Amino acid sequence: MLKRDISTTSILIAAAGGMIGSGWLFTPFLGAKMAGPNALVSWVIAAVFMLLIALPLCELGAMLPLSGGMSNYPTFTHGREVGFLFSWVTWLSYVVMTPIEIQAILQYSSHFFSALLVKEAYYFKLSPIGYVAALAIMFAIVLLNTYGIKFLTECNKYASIIKFILPSIAIVSLMHASPSFENIHLTLTTEESWMQIFSALSAGGIAFAFTGFQNGLMLAGEVKNPQKTIPIAMLGAILVGLILYFTLQLAFLMAIPKIYLQQGWHPLTFPGDSGPLVGLTLLLGLSLVATLLLFDAAFSPLGTTLVYTAATSRILYGMALNKYLPSLFLKVNRYQIPYMTLYANFLVGALSFLPFPGWQKMVAFLASASIFSYGVGPVCLLALRKLRSEQYRPFRLDNSFVICYGAFFVCNLMLYWCGFPVIWKLYLAIMVGSIIYFFYHRNTRFSNKLSLYWFFSYVTLLLLLSYLGSFGGMGLLRFPLDMLLIFPFSLFMLYLSQHCLVKDAAEQESFELMNKQLQDL
């Protein structure tokens, strides 16, 4: 049993702090290149979508405050197989987060230690020295996580204060240096401008920047008063993130010197743009601010890795509780921390440095995996309203039918906007997870074949729509017709998801497992 030792303040800071990692260091630049000033619209849309997605998760998180969070829910509603596949995608979206944050640390640190990186044609990659440094940082973070969740959240609380202060300094400094709105011209009347807005939202890292609000769910099994704490943490974190990121994007757009905009926003480049905020402050003569940003460029991702390393270990812990993985991953140390999952994630994270050459290369894939996992919320909330209508719900979502359909629709929209080059990779990752599960459980009877048919139909049709569509696909489905098709597709797939729920013996087994996990609440 994990110890319930996290306060409302700590979990809110963990969720909000989890969003302020490397995203704020790169996303304003990527958003500006992809959508220009229209990137401001992307931030607002992303925040509204994330608030809609978070509402079903608030009810589920308060009702089932389990370690591993939303990775548990599909097991209770759709059986072991679909439960594993959703957990697999959730784990993928988390396990490579720490390596990417560490890559950001080393990329900015290369201003002082150039030997950490090797420059390729269009990106930077870790040198052998950089790889050793990355492993050392990751191992140190794992060690910190083994000393107890209260120790971790206290460390993160103070780290997050600095993480909020320095971006705020950057915002004020950039606006003071360039107080004019001459660069801010919104263009919302053309199809191309809206395609750029949507692409920046998904593929440009804006949706990725909001990942972190769900950390309150991953640590729910260790939260005091989860009924009150979890909704505050998730919704509050999204609002904090919107205010910070929107003002940072605005300040960045205002501060770009006109000389670098002669060819427009898309080919935007300037000296030092490998670390865009530092490069921009140096261009403006803000050397002191640049020095502070260089410090925070290492510090912010480090704080995020503390949170994500803890959350990722709880996903594996939850998968072991659900009997997807060996009981070895249920072992805890004297601080009641699942240490075996920490070390397993360390090994996977160490290997993930090899195929991922840089921060930007992984943003769209990570966003797609995170968004896909958010679909658990609306699917499982409606399912549990059927299967466990009598169960106490400390936070009950009004108009749940409409909100769940809306949340599932925006999940699929954002997935589609990631583009076919990303979606096929996500599909391949899901197929790899399927092979692993079916091999490991080759002698086990299926708990719910019907839900498997639904799951594979869902991901395959999504892949087909992406292939035929206008976001990196064949362009046979023209914008905005392609987006209009996502609406009936989402309605149909969510409708089918409620007709393949666990039944009879499988339902009994599933909810015995759920009740066992809840018995210590």
TrEMBL record:
Please report the record's description of how this protein sits within the membrane.
Multi-pass membrane protein
Any one Gene Ontology molecular-function term assigned to this protein's record: transmembrane transporter activity
User: Does this entry carry the keyword Cell membrane?
Assistant: no
Name the domain of life: Bacteria
TM regions (residue ranges): 12-31, 43-64, 85-106, 126-146, 158-177, 197-220, 232-256, 276-295, 337-356, 362-384, 396-416, 422-440, 452-470, 476-496
Q: Does the keyword Coiled coil apply?
A: no
- Chief subcellular location: membrane
Q: Which UniProt keywords apply?
A: Membrane, Transmembrane, Transmembrane helix
Matching entries from InterPro entries are given as: AA/rel_permease1, AA_Transporter_AGT
The listed locations are: Membrane
Its cellular-component GO annotations read:
membrane
* Protein name as catalogued: Putative amino acid transporters
Annotated organism of origin:
Candidatus Rickettsiella viridis
